[in-house]
Amino acid sequence: MEMVCRPPTCSHVIQLLDWFEEAGWIILVMELPSPCLDVFRFTRQLGGYMEESLARFVLQQVVQATVHCRDRGVLHRDIKSRNLLIQTEDLHVKLIDFGCGDLLTEAPYTNFAGTRLFQPPEWVMDGEYHGRPATVWSLGVLLFALVCGSRPFRREQDIIGSELRFKEGVSDEVAMVDYIQFISLEGKEDI
């Protein structure tokens, strides 16, 4: 947390205000944006999904947060709607819960931490993955969930080769997520 909270800070990453140890526990004191909800609950209040313009606005903020983490050498590893807070008055988004996070390395990760249905296909196929492409993958899964109101995969096996089924009316821009899942792993753009 200290690495991502060093100045200059990012307004889309929850801020660590203080920390201390007590009886073998590390206690983190974090900022509390108010009023806010996690994005999962916020989306449910909207009827289960977001209009594309709102999803785009939310995703832009999440991308800014992940770029900030990358620049600080941190891999979040669990980007999902429950790990995002949205301030209900101005729709400002903050990335939270770095409990699965790790230092960002160029070497492949050989253990998975995070939410199983957001895991990258490389992990399912080979038991290893690279941090930056895995972040791009999780952003695509998040976008699908925001605009369609459900996760794109029901089981781990579905991550490999299943056809995505978008909600009716989803734009071609968003449906590009379907195309992106078939791009070779070497060709994925890094954040």
UniProtKB/TrEMBL annotation:
Its EC number is 2.7.11.1. Keywords: ATP-binding, Kinase, Nucleotide-binding, Serine/threonine-protein kinase, Transferase. GO terms for biological process: negative regulation of apoptotic process; regulation of mitotic cell cycle. Residues 1-191 form the Protein kinase domain. This is non-specific serine/threonine protein kinase. Gene3D superfamilies: Phosphorylase Kinase, domain 1 (3.30.200.20), Transferase(Phosphotransferase) domain 1 (1.10.510.10). SMART domains: S_TKc (SM00220). The keyword Oxidoreductase does not apply. PANTHER family: AURORA KINASE-RELATED (PTHR22984:SF11), SERINE/THREONINE-PROTEIN KINASE PIM (PTHR22984). Belongs to the protein kinase superfamily. CAMK Ser/Thr protein kinase family. PIM subfamily. SUPFAM superfamilies: Protein kinase-like (PK-like). It catalyses: L-threonyl-[protein] + ATP = O-phospho-L-threonyl-[protein] + ADP + H(+); L-seryl-[protein] + ATP = O-phospho-L-seryl-[protein] + ADP + H(+). It comes from the Eukaryota. It comes from Anguilla anguilla. InterPro entries: Kinase-like_dom_sf, PIM_Ser/Thr_kinase, Prot_kinase_dom, Ser/Thr_kinase_AS. The keyword Nucleotide-binding applies. One of its GO terms (cellular component) is cytoplasm. GO terms for molecular function: ATP binding; protein serine/threonine kinase activity. Pfam families: Pkinase.
